[in-house]
UniProtKB/TrEMBL annotation:
Lineage: Archaea, Methanobacteriati, Methanobacteriota, Stenosarchaea group, Halobacteria
InterPro entries registered for this protein in UniProt: NA-bd_OB-fold (IPR012340), SOSS-B (IPR051231)
SUPFAM superfamilies, alphabetized: Nucleic acid-binding proteins
GO MF annotation terms: DNA binding; helicase activity
Annotated GO biological process: double-strand break repair via homologous recombination; response to ionizing radiation
UniProt keyword terms in alphabetical order: ATP-binding, DNA-binding, Helicase, Hydrolase, Nucleotide-binding
CDD domains recorded: SoSSB_OBF
Name the record gives this protein: OB-fold tRNA/helicase-type nucleic acid binding-protein
Domain of life: Archaea
Length: 309
């Protein structure tokens, strides 16, 4: 392929989703500039790109840089890459800004990743549980975690199929250095499909409700390199602490105070070394498989370091 033809091909890829243009058209424009007007190829390419931007009514940042590539979630390891993804919407979250139309979690067989869809990009709504072919999305990175952004050039096509979402399993070996608030004996909203944790007897969505007791731990585990947030559900908490939900309720009843449960658990687990395996959801690892370790010789050091964070 000639140089000009290659450039024409690239430009065509950038615009083929937006306007009806052939590679030949693009090549002809480039050739005219290069051959007749002796414009350097880079400048010719810029000029032709601008021409099509105008024709398509797009801004430069709206078009992908040299065609996007179909990738799997696990391959995303750089920001500002234009990619295509086939993924399922695992969950939608409440956008915290008016500039965001939708935000949530996407997944494919290799893992999960957060996505953001801008309000101004005017794209169709994604549905929870549906599978989409997403072309022209841009990767982003914040504090070492990757996400993808849907923009005005993104092409969304719903697929009539289901895909198995990979667990993105993590294995962490380290000291459990902290337990976060919201751990221990908690109450959840009893409304169907809600299960939000109540704050002072109130659900964020449903107001004052008669909560249902549950056990959970939100822990921070330091593997010596990173601090990981790990969630233990009721079963995992019971396994970890040997304390059942019933025993925890009795304990709280006797003390007339639910925080005694968290205090007890804190005493029991903070400073202990574990190997934890489980799926990753957003920034959390769900503890599926937990094994207590003897701990390395420098466990004390880890704790000192963790306290200084
Ligand atoms: Zn609720």
């Amino acid at each position: 392929m000639s140089d000009v033809r290659q450039h024409a091909d690239d430009i065509h890829d950038q615009f083929s989703d937006h306007i009806d243009v052939s590679v030949d058209d693009v090549e002809e424009r480039l050739t005219t500039l290069v051959d007749e007007y002796k414009v350097p190829i880079d400048e010719a390419r810029r000029s032709v790109t601008n021409h099509y931007l105008e024709e398509a009514g797009l801004e430069r940042e709206d078009i992908s840089q040299g065609g996007s590539e179909e990738v799997n979630v696990e391959d995303i390891d750089k920001p500002e890459q234009w990619i295509d993804l086939t993924a399922k919407v695992i969950e939608l979250w409440d956008p915290r800004s008016d500039s965001v139309a939708q935000v949530g979690l996407l997944g494919d067989p290799t893992g999960t990743i957060k996505f953001t869809k801008w309000a101004k990009s005017d794209l169709p709504s994604l549905e929870e549980g549906a599978v989409y072919d997403l072309r022209n999305v841009v990767t982003d990175e914040y504090q070492g975690r990757y996400s993808v952004k849907l923009n005005s050039t993104t092409v969304i096509e719903e697929l009539d199929e289901d895909i198995e979402v990979g667990d993105d399993t993590s294995e962490i070996e380290g000291a459990l250095v902290d337990m976060q608030s919201g751990s221990g004996l908690i109450k959840r909203c009893p409304k169907e499909d809600c299960t939000r944790v109540l704050q002072n007897g109130r659900c964020n969505e449903h107001g004052e409700v008669e909560g249902e007791f549950d056990l959970r731990i939100k822990a921070v585990v330091d593997d010596g390199i990173d601090a990981h947030e790990v969630i233990f559900d009721k079963e995992a908490t019971e396994d970890l602490t040997g304390l059942s939900l019933e025993e925890a309720k009795d304990m709280a009843m006797d003390a007339l105070d639910t925080t005694i449960v968290a205090d007890e658990i804190h005493e029991d687990i903070v400073g202990t070394y574990y190997r934890i395996e489980g799926p990753t959801f957003g920034r959390y690892v769900l503890a599926d498989d937990v094994e207590e370790l003897d701990g390395p010789a420098d466990a004390e050091q880890l704790l000192i370091r963790a306290r200084s964070m």
